[in-house]
Amino acid sequence: MLEEAKKLLQSYFGYEAFRTGQEQAISQVFEGHNSICVMPTGGGKSMCYQIPALVMEGTTIVISPLISLMKDQVDALTAAGIPAAYINSSLGFEEVRETLHNVQQGTVKLLYIAPERLDSQIFLDELQGVHVPLIAVDEAHCISQWGHDFRPSYRLISRMMELFPNNPTVLALTATATPQVRDDICRILGIDKEHTVMTGFERANLTFSVVRGQDRERFVKDYVEKNKKEAGIIYAATRKTVDSVYEMLLKKGIKAAKYHAGMPDEERKIGQERFLNDEVTVMVATNAFGMGIDKSNIRYVIHYQLPKNMESYYQEAGRAGRDGLPSECIVLYASQDVQTQRFLIDQAQDQSRIPGELVKLQGMIDYCHTENCLQQFIIYYFGDTDAEPCGRCGNCLDERESLDVTKDVQMVLSCVVRMGQKFGKMLTAQVLTGSRNKKVIEFGFDKLSTYGILKHQSTKEVSNLMEFMISQDLLAVEQGAYPTIYVPDGGRDVLLGKRQVLRKGAVVTKQLSENDPLFEELRKVRKELADEAGVPPFVIFSDKTLQDMCLRRPQTPASFLEVNGVGANKLEKYGDAFLEAIRSYEK
């Protein structure tokens, strides 16, 4: 069976060998063991059930909570010549009936369904009599109440397993599961822990960094401008922030789309399609976007505001570089985001989950303040304590010069004390810069000795300095309806001259890739073919495959077949167009 699986990997998907963990997971499926497979996003989890589905008799059922992912995967499988279908709420009654008829006739190798379908006894009755060798449970962390994305309908999977007399093998797959969540998955799905496949949580092609105490708007404008040909996602915690970042990018002439729950369904759908089809390069969104987005050529993910926990962050950041090419994941940290996330956590319907969510939020705050390796911090969080420093994250490679800002910090601290430690960051910055704001005058702060002592700086610059001071525990925030700042012990030491304060220079944005004219030509060919076929460009070929074409410059069908990611089916469909483009370029 395994030999046949390897041949199918080459002929359908164009890959010479399985990735780490894939062969072990596939072997366990062939041996009939219920298994759990924990692989990072982009690690190739889908291959662990798609290949067995091709080898085994019958229809493999894939349970996935993500409508967009189902469509992307079915499009990609169909493009590779594999009969696949999905059933979810986006289909009409007739389409569902036709799909079920095809499944009952045995002409569908992979059927993707939403977990909510398991609520319907009528639907389950339709599946009776279908030969199902394998049930794949994607995003399996949704089954655990300890997971960050708990979906009660996932608990119905065990009910479905009883439908089939031949006891199908179960394969649970997830990218982000702490030890507690893994235990839950195994218990509910009847998986023996010894049948766990874990390839580690590290994503070797991703570079993580945290930018603190800088002007976020300026950073994003500069970053996107330098990488305007690359696809990226900018996440924000609130709809209001999504709207403002989106407007800012449009004014800069950047092709952007936005996505949040406050938009009409049709508008969201159009924005998502434009991003998937490379018609816009940047998607600005809340965390409502991206679950199951299979777009492989996302080169960067920027979190404009603090994410709510490490599981969400790693999943969202992990949407970068699914094709294995170098990509960046950046968090822009500001202390007021903590208040925003606390507010969102307090809105939870299940109040019993709030204490646990606050603990997880603190883990995210710690990540933003650690001076150790960021990738190592993430991997430790998920229970792998053997990880070494990555040597490539923002902390590992930080060579910025440190400047002595003790004097400016003392001025800020002195002003906070003179204002009675009862006011917010913004008003304090206005006093320090000599603003004639109505509130400043009303409170008589224009009479303080610290009034205007930093007037050579803008309010924003002073505000950013205070952000830096908060991140270094030189200033502290009293949370409440109106957060106020006060001087903690660390700040007192600086005021008394017992401690020097060094601040690193601003993080400088950089261009992610060199311009390659042939790569741009091949991108155009891919876009034309994708538009003709009505699928996103990455379904035709990934950026990694295009880069390999640039490297190899194939001239014949046989040499084109050697390109990474080109199988026989895709050679037949698209080979001529790409070979012609390469020959024209060579001339």
From TrEMBL:
Annotated PROSITE patterns: HELICASE_ATP_BIND_1, HELICASE_CTER, HRDC
UniProt domain Helicase C-terminal: residue ranges: 219-365
Every Helicase ATP-binding domain range: 26-195
GO biological process: DNA recombination; DNA repair; DNA replication; SOS response
Coiled coil regions in record: none
CDD domains on file: DEXHc_RecQ, SF2_C_RecQ
Keyword Zinc: yes
Gene Ontology cellular component annotations, sorted alphabetically: bacterial nucleoid; cytoplasm; replisome
EC number: 5.6.2.4
Alphabetized UniProt keyword annotations: ATP-binding, DNA damage, DNA recombination, DNA repair, DNA-binding, Helicase, Hydrolase, Isomerase, Metal-binding, Nucleotide-binding, Zinc
Record InterPro entries: DEAD/DEAH_box_helicase_dom, DNA_helicase_ATP-dep_RecQ, DNA_helicase_ATP-dep_RecQ_bac, Helicase_ATP-bd, Helicase_C-like, HRDC-like_sf, HRDC_dom, HRDC_dom_sf
Molecular functions (GO terms): 3'-5' DNA helicase activity; ATP binding; DNA binding; four-way junction helicase activity; hydrolase activity; metal ion binding
Pfam family, one: DEAD
Necessary cofactors: Mg(2+); Zn(2+)
Domain annotation HRDC: ranges: 512-587
Catalytic activity entry: Couples ATP hydrolysis with the unwinding of duplex DNA by translocating in the 3'-5' direction
EC category: isomerase
Keyword field contains Membrane: no
NCBIfam families, per the entry: recQ, recQ_fam
Sequence similarity: Belongs to the helicase family. RecQ subfamily.
Official protein name in the record: DNA helicase RecQ
